[in-house]
Amino acid sequence: MSNGVTKRSLQEKVSITLLAVMGALSVLSFIVLKEVVAPAFDELELVQAQSNLNRAEKAIANDLENLVAIAGDWAVWDDAYDYATGEYPAFEASNLDRPTLTNLDLALLAYYDTAGDLIWGQASNGDSLVALAELGILEPGTETAALLITHAELEARENGLLDTDIGPMLISSWPVQRSDSTGPIAGTMIMGQLLDGTRLARLRERTEVMLDWRAIDHDADVPAALQTPLNGSSAGSMLHESAEDEIVSSGVLVDLFSAPIILLDARTPRQISALGQSTVNGALLFLSLAALIVAVVAWLLLRSVIVLPLEGLAKHITGIRKSGDLSQRLNDTRADEIGSLAGEFDKLTDELQEARKLLLDQSFKAGKADNAAEVLHNIRNAMTPLINSIDRLAKDLGVTDGLKVRQAVEELTSDECPAERAGKLLQYIESAFSHIEGTNRHASENLGVASKQARQVEAILVDQEKHAKVSPVMENLPLHEVLDEAVLVIPKTADPEIKLELVNGVSQCSVRAHRVGLLQVLGNLILNAYESIQRGQSHVGRIELSAVTESVEDKPMVRLIVRDSGCGFDDDFKQKIFQRGYSSKQGNLSGLGLHWCANALAGMGGRIQAESRGPGQGAEFHVLLPVAQGG
Amino acid sequence: MNTQHQNDDSIRILIADDDEHILDCYREAFGEADATDHMKALDALEAELFNPSTDIEDTPKFEVVSCKQGDDAISLAKEAANDGHPFDVVILDVRMPPGIDGVEAGSQIRDLDPDVEIVFVTGYSDVPREELERRVPPPMRLHYFNKPISFMKLAEDVASIVKAQ
Lengths: 631, 165
Fold this sequence. Notes:
The structure holds 2 protein chains of 2 kinds.
Chain A: H1 10-75, H2 78-84, H3 90-95, H4 98-103, E1 108-113, E2 118-124, E3 129-130, H5 143-149, E4 158-164, E5 167-176, E6 187-194, H6 197-207, E7 210-215, E8 239-242, E9 246-254, E10 260-269, H7 271-323, H8 337-401, H9 405-413, H10 419-467, E11 475-478, H11 479-486, E12 498-502, E13 510-513, H12 515-534, E14 541-552, E15 555-564, H13 571-576, H14 594-603, E16 607-611, E17 619-626
Parallel strand pairs in A: 12-14
Antiparallel strand pairs in A: 1-2, 1-6, 2-3, 4-5, 5-6, 7-10, 8-9, 9-10, 11-13, 14-15, 15-17, 16-17
Chain B: E1 2-4, E2 11-16, H1 20-30, H2 33-50, E3 62-67, H3 70-82, E4 89-93, H4 102-112, E5 117-122, H5 129-135, E6 142-146, H6 151-164
Helix pairs in contact in B: 1-6, 3-4
């Protein structure tokens, strides 16, 4: 009866469990890769973008440092000093010409005296010379001019960025002094390099950073995220904007007055995140495949190591339960727990088979005993009135037999009998006849009761005969097991010269039969063979038991042959050997009776045959029985 | 339940057996006093005429109460004991379906009357005598007969048992 719970096979449960584990592992891997690994790549990419911007800023700073170094060379120089003080005019012809700007990659070179008046100056927009006034930063009276053109101390320097009218420029302003850095200050030397497209290209080449910059209007609002300039602090602020294929990292550069002047953009292709995504996808694919392979391998392993053996065990148990055949064994030699379980189940089956055998024997005996007791009870009850009727009849007849009627008649007929005695004799004769009449009547009644009770006994016996026709319990029986038990009929004190041997096929054959009945039949045949040899002249002989499986009338049958070297028999005896009531004494056979054996085997669907080449030449009894079911 | 031969000198017997035919046999065996009056007169006349020195044997008389179940036997024994006329002998069949068996009935009757002689008569031999003696002591007041039996012989044995008391 179903209790509402869906039954699943072990194989289904294992499959579902493995699929669930595999699914959970895949989901967990997906989450870890997406939420932990992929963001790590993004973070790394962001670090790279930050590094790119820092490299670009550092490259500009390096350019500025180079410019400062060059400016230092040209400002702290005796020749330049003398030129600034007017003592060496030839300095201009030999050093301050157009190639000088080009060679030094300068956009501005100017010398001022200590009064702030231009001694010599030249500017270039990269293509041609321009007037210094066009720069817009050296006009007298401007804040920038005041900062750059005059220096109060030998150590004073002004280095940094300035926005000019021809573009943002790296500026370095030094006080002109002796080569040994002594003064007094003779004037100011100013150098500048334009941050133009050419420089941008060189910076890109040097840094391998996709760099861009653009000038910022002084009045423009700088985003809050960029308030700290890249060149004004050790940790300038940056702004990263991520697009699908690149990250644009932005930072601000300030001029000498700490005003934002340039917005620096470093574009970083999103190669790392692309690589990360590819890696994550590859890892997901790998993990999924690995999980699938692990699940398949685990499923195959579990199936071969656990599921199939357990299914085999379950099938074996179910087979035994359905067939009731306890002779089947697993014989599993695996050296693991399932092998142990199978071994223990085989032992359990052994014990169960033995217990069933004992139970069948006991049931058979108990059934016979109960039946016999019941029949005896009924017969005794029926016999009791019968016996009592006969007892009463015997008693009455005994009394009648003892009556002295003849003596009384003789006395009465005698002339010497006194009258008084004669009267009493007549009374006695009358009473005696009255008793005889009563006895006759009682005899008739008692015989009637006896007859009725005798018929009751007969009815009990007829009824018992019906029960005797009940089919015995049939079971699969390994032949060697039955024979091992049947041979015990031979006395322990048996003549050692009589050999009993189990030969071909006995251990391989199993039959379908009633165990106790077959046991008695085989015991009878073996005992007959033993006694037949014993009755021979030599007292030396051999009993051989063999078995083969063959087809008899299209049915698989086991032929068991009990062959002895005993007395044998002639053809006349062979014709009568299985007849009812035929004594075996003539043929030197004894036991329960071959007639009973033949009937018992017929009740099991089998039969028996007897063969002998003649007296003194041994005999063979062939027992044919159906092959065990499923065997 | 059936009662016959009520007489103060008679042997009071309670019989329980589930087979009506067996009960008839009991009644006949233990109830022949009336039928033997004629025989006793004949015997007396024969002795007077042909053997004057012979004494006429006094045949015992039985008062028989019968029933077919063990419970009824217990009730009858209890009732008799309460009336002050306990039974001398109780004869019980061992198996009396569907009620309690004779051994249980005998055990309870023994509890009611320690002196009553209890006789088991059965067609079964599956209750060992040792078991009967254990459940219905004492052995000296316990008797066991296997069917088939001669009820006339049983009547004589019962009379002997009572006489030996």
